[in-house]
Design the sequence.
């Protein structure tokens, strides 16, 4: 199924060595799919959006200076201000235009999954931060997950919300 292109990496191509590219969760799913599906285990195929897509979104939208200003001097002492800044960070990410080729890449990959599993295929959209589960710290469940996503429009929206969830209050605390 599918070959990597642009910002998309298929599970069949991912290994644990791809954590910096697609995060720990995706690298593990890829490793599992690549190693176990050929042995007959029924593991659904899938794809990951690379961390580079997120970095290009921030760079392309020119929002990094405002993001840096929002996190400068951030204090958990004033929870209202903390929450306000987090909300603004999420808005900046959610409203930023997707990098050229990302929406088409996601739509194409989703179309390939629909070809494999049926036109009404539901997918999960989950963050797989590249800094998850370090040897001395765990960052699990700090970002959002979206289940039962169906259709390209819902999928693109869930991807945007997942990117923005890097700045939930629990993630930035």
Sequence:
């Amino acid at each position: 199924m599918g070959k990597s292109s642009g910002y998309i990496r298929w599970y069949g191509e991912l290994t644990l060595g791809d954590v910096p590219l697609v995060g720990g969760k995706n690298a593990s799913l890829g490793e599992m799919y690549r190693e176990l599906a050929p042995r007959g285990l029924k593991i659904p195929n899938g794809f990951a959006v690379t961390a580079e897509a997120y970095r290009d979104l921030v760079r392309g939208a020119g929002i990094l200076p405002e993001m840096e200003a929002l996190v400068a001097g951030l204090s958990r002492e004033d929870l209202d201000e903390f929450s306000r800044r987090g909300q603004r960070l999420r808005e900046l990410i959610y409203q930023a235009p997707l990098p050229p080729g990302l929406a088409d890449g996601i739509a194409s990959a989703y179309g390939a999954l629909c070809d494999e599993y049926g036109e009404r295929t539901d997918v999960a959209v989950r963050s797989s931060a590249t800094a998850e589960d370090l040897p001395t710290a765990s960052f699990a469940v700090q970002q959002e997950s979206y289940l039962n996503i169906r259709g390209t429009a819902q999928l693109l929206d869930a991807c945007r919300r997942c990117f923005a969830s890097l700045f939930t209050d629990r993630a930035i605390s």
